[in-house]
Amino acid sequence: MTARSAQVWWQDRNVGTIREDERGIIHFRYSDEWLHRDDFPVSISLPLHKADQELEAHSFFAGLLPEGATRQRICRQQGINQSDDMGLLLAIGEDCAGALSVLPPDIRPELGSSTPVALPQEDFERLLRKKGQVQGTAVASAQRFSLAGAQDKLPVIRRQEQLFLPDAHHPSSHIIKFETLNRVCFAEYMAGRIAHSIGLPVVSTSYRTTVVGKSTLQWLEVERYDRVKDSKGRLVRLHQEDILQALGMPVSMKYQSDGGPSIAQIGELLRQHLDRPAIALSQLRDWQICNFLIGNWDGHAKNLALLYTPGSAAPTLAPFYDLVAIEFLNQLTPGSYARDMALFVGSEKNPERITKAQWEEMARQLSMPPKPLLQRVRELAEQLPGIATACREEFAREHGDRALYDKLVGMVRKRSRWTLKTMAG
User: Fold this and answer.
1) Coiled-coil segments, which residues (predicted)?
2) pLDDT score at 149
3) How far apart are CA 220 and CA 175, in angstroms?
């Protein structure tokens, strides 16, 4: 079999080449053009000072690809084996998370050289009804984009009220998330609002509804944090990578229980490589406390990312994304998700066994004094019931009231009360 390769691009500049070896492992080499300009590294795990080498890079590039049912659907549509990472990159690598485009060797991006494909309203409504299934829509024939993760989502370009499909020439501006599980859009929107209210930087998310026939369908529209406008008003991709990619770990290790990184490893990565690491570490601390109190058991290593901005000497911690009140969903549909924390508190993954001792252990793992961290746990446990109530009332004013909204507030109140009790010793 002929070895397959692809070119990696940032806008119209060649970053380097990826090549698949006889075992199916992906390797990467920086281009001379990229090295001579002293640009940003593709990943902390692929440093520029190793530029004269071909680097093993499978974990980074496979980390750009979707997972789970989304991956299965795209592979069926494209006629690609589900384990073929290189084939999938060649098929859908035009618009990935972050700045990079992965294109076949004979194709190069020509920015603004064409018009993006419009997404007709009837196709969008079909996507809402089918919870992201693209068959029979404009997406099926135009899909050459990749978003990592297990949830069905669609990158789009929003221009006023019209949606378009992205490609190598036209970066996506937003991500559409579909209601793939009962009330998951509400659970994610509320989790983000609560996190924002305690001062965490989170992605800008709109909760939307569309009436199709006799049904009112819910969806989320998330503004991409890895996009900015240049001096001409054109959308430009910013580079980013998630924590797994930065550590050179495969997607299969995103959960700590599967051998993935601990909060100690993540904290050390931030301390060594980030601009203003103290701020990032305090945000990481608050994110983990918030996850615990709102019942977000799925806060894994792919839900933390580093953002590279032009002119900065080092990346920053990206705004938080994919926060979901998982425990609320479990109340609505028991057993929908596991109840173990994706990222342990101390050395404990069972939320019901996390007490003062585990928070003290987490403080030591982050090289923080325990007393201020314990005080922060108490502060947030005291604040969150009121914050959740205010967020629920705001949501009801904008989208109508439902009794089930109280379940989320009740869950946060119960978890906060229990946490304060365990911290009293």
Assistant:
1) none
2) 47
3) 8
Q: Name the token pair of 252.
A: 């299969």
Compute the distance between CA of residue 218 and CA of residue 209 in angstroms, rounded to an integer. Answer: 5
Question: What is the percent of the chain with per-residue pLDDT over 70, rounded to a whole number?
Answer: 92
pLDDT band at 341, cuts 50/70/90?
A: very high
Query: Which of 165-169, 375-379, 383-387, 417-421 is the least confident region?
Result: 165-169
Please measure the distance between the N-terminal and C-terminal CA atoms of the chain and give it in whole angstroms: 65
Nearest residue to 143 (alpha-carbon basis) of 151, 155, 152: 155
- Domains parsed from the chain with CATH numbers: 5-103 (no CATH), 117-223 (no CATH), 240-422 (1.10.1070.20)
